[in-house]
Amino acid sequence: xxxxxxxxxxxxxxxxxxxxxxxxxxxxxxxxxxxxxxxxxxxxxxxxxxxxxxxxxxxxxxxxxxxxxxxxxxxxxxxxxxxxxxxxxxxxxxxxxxxxxxxxxxxxxxxx
Length: 112
Description:
Structural class: mainly beta
Oligomer: single chain
Number of helices: 1
């Protein structure tokens, strides 16, 4: 099941500027369509897959299975548990494909 993450400005027509990993948190800076910066802080991150920075259309949360989520869980657990605290957060490109996918427990969205 996929759910779109909302922000006051919105992610459509935004562009990923950069991301930084600090311990188990990843902070993604997105330049919004109006020039403001939206910061997404991913808490307790255990996996990242980068398909190139650039324009995005949305940030989504997938609580089901994704190939990256499955690989990361298999790495961390001897037997993959049925229930776990992780989700796949995807910054999607204009075609709806993941541009940046982060496996984390939660996200916090801030406007700077």
